[in-house]
């Protein structure tokens, strides 16, 4: 996986609009240079950057773990990684549901949707606010018990803020109490420290602020560049198990975009009809909706209508 036994599982590309500040190829090229052999990509409520990330990963000889970051309606946020082809289908259904339910750029997904649709997915809860973390973790633990298809995880991420050691220890203890597993992530938004300036501009646009008045909005995104596995291990002394769990997740998620192939749809909706019989039935059922004032047999010469029926029957 890497020299230090760590796989970065939380990386957003520029396909996370006004969030990620680096192109997929820049991130994969930097990952290779830093010693990664595996990298996870999780854009915000989308998989739109994964094709380019996959191409870049193939060029660099780095294994890509495709996933997505899901932002729930109640404020909880999770990373979702498919274990296999069925897991990918589940993730795509969840993304479609959230996008359809929302308006414009809104994304609306709920815990109930995960309970119904999430299958063969590795879920990693991202702590947002301390006061809501116990409730979010309890929701995740309940979901994991219901699905019973593998462990659930909670991210340990450094923000370089005051009392951070206490926050990480408290989060790890909550994981023990709820029966979920802590795993280290870097929450990467750009590939190189020099891209911080561009991200500041993007944040100002997203927040409708000037650079001079960003304040805490800028502070929350400091030091979010891709770090080497060794550097990450130095930042998390005493959390060796949480570091190693990134490998555990990488090993569990064997899905690749290479697994996707064109699948011709079922023409008969699972019935015993032939495709031709199904087509005739659907056309006849649709005629009253298409011609509510009367069928073409009433409006067109009967010879044309008979020709239409003859063509339909082959």
Supply the key terms.
314 residues; TIM Barrel; 6-stranded mixed beta sheet; 6 strands; elongated
| Sheet having the most strands | 6 strands, mixed
Number of domains: 2
pLDDT < 50 stretches: none
Helix content: 40-55%
Q: What's the SSE pattern?
A: HEHEEHHEHEHEHHHHHHH
Number of helices in the DSSP assignment: 13
How many runs of DSSP E, i.e. beta strands? 6
What's the CATH H-level homologous superfamily of the largest domain?
Answer: Metal-dependent hydrolases
Q: Residue-averaged pLDDT, rounded? A: 90
Q: How would you write the strand order of the largest sheet?
A: 1-2-3-4-5-6
Gyration radius, to the nearest Å?
25 Å
| Silhouette | elongated
> What is the CATH class designation of the largest domain?
Alpha Beta
- Specify the structural class: alpha/beta
CATH topology of the largest domain: TIM Barrel
N-C termini distance: 58 Å
Q: Please give the CATH architecture of the largest domain.
A: Alpha-Beta Barrel
Beta content comes to: 5-15%
3D architecture notes:
With 314 residues, the protein is α/β, with parallel strands linked by helices. 46% of the residues lie in helices and 11% in strands. It has a six-stranded mixed beta sheet with strand order 1-2-3-4-5-6. The chain is elongated, with a radius of gyration of 25 Å.
